[in-house]
Specification:
The protein is 19% helix and 38% strand. The structure holds flavin mononucleotide (FMN). Flavin mononucleotide binds next to β2, β4 and α2. Pfam families: Flavin_Reduct (PF01613).
């Protein structure tokens, strides 16, 4: 599953993509967790409530994480990490390609792909965070939603 490489690369930026009914969107993420829960592999992504992606996740059933290992998609990561799908159509920025199992697509040109079924979500109880974490990350108190996705498929760009 290439967990170590994924975790070392995600802080440089990855694409979190979701389709909900007819709408599709992607946004850049820099945080995430992979691990084992309920005896299954899980990818947990953190999304602030006002993101357009959050609106789609709330109504969707799955998401994908597409990770570039190099710098080939840096420009796209920059745009998808600063512009909202409310204002722009991100299919004009990146190329969505069909996934193997999820309704949510993946992003062309990445090196590692995870297809995840949403099994649980939880809003962070931020009031209990340490004060330094709150002041550094949540001056607006916009605590993240955590989406726990069971990894139902993962592969590298050469299909392995
Ligand atoms: C490197 C990088 C990492 C980011 N990581 C996250 C993240 O983990 N969670 C989050 O909610 N927003 C994160 N963002 C911000 C969103 O990508 C950004 O607000 C985006 O425009 C949201 O798009 P949307 O409104 O179409 O969902 C990150 C931005 C950058 C540039």
């Amino acid at each position: 599953m290439n967990m170590e490489k994924t975790m070392s690369k995600i802080k440089n930026g990855a694409f979190l993509s979701v389709r909900s009914r007819t709408k599709v969107n992607t946004m850049t993420i820099g945080w995430g967790y992979m691990g084992i829960m309920w005896n299954k592999p899980y990818f947990m992504v953190l999304v602030r409530p006002h993101r357009y992606t959050n609106e789609l996740l709330e109504n969707g059933e799955d998401f994908t994480v597409s990770i570039p290992f190099g710098s080939n998609l840096n420009k796209e990561l920059g745009i998808c990490g600063t512009k909202s799908g409310i204002d722009i159509d991100k299919s004009e920025i990146v190329e969505f390609v069909p996934s193997k199992l999820t309704k949510s697509p993946v992003i062309k040109g990445c090196d590692m792909y995870y297809e995840c079924k949403i099994r649980f979500k939880q809003l962070m109880n931020g009031e209990e965070f340490p004060e330094d974490v709150k002041s550094a990350n949540y001056p607006q108190k916009d605590y993240h939603y955590m989406y726990f996705g069971e990894i139902i498929e993962c592969y590298s760009n050469d299909g392995k």
